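Hello,

Our lab assistant flagged a job as stuck in the queue for most of the afternoon. It eventually completed. Since we weren't sure the result was trustworthy after the delay, we are filing this so someone can double-check. Below is the sequence as submitted and the structure that was eventually returned. Let us know if re-running is recommended.
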Amino acid sequence: MRKAQAKKLPLAPDPKFNDKLVTRFVNNLMWEGKKSGAYTIFYTALDKVAKMTSEDGYEVWKKALTNITPGVEVRSRRIGGATFQIPAEVRADRKVSLSIKWMVRYSRERNGRSMADKLANEIVAASKGEGASYKKKEDTHRMAEANKAFAHFRI
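-- returned structure --
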């Protein structure tokens, strides 16, 4: 029998915007436990976004995150010796988690001078409905749409 599920630790809101979502994002951005460095990268990126778009960087970042948040995904399920990709709704917590992970991952893969530059460019692209993280969301939705025929296998 499985043990009890681990309890989620409460997150402290970030110092500048007093938002727990920012802390969650910075935790994913963090490398080798260097949280203050991750905060510096994030805040610098938001300043650069504000200069690029002449809007509030924080609001553009929030818009970008909502743009790349997936609604459905495919989950593998083995039925009678065959593995099917079954479309399923994404839990609210996982939606946020996926969008944050995609943004950080595709920011790292971009070419630019510093991580702040790369992140700023990815945020601006995602807020416009462009960029690699937005494409990932579209591909995920397209895969779910293509496998709609197997939806009756849902758990």
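-- support follow-up --
The delay was a queue issue, not a problem with the job. The result is valid. The helical segments are 20-29, 35-53, 57-67, 92-109, 115-127, 131-146. The first strand starts at residue 72 and ends at 79.
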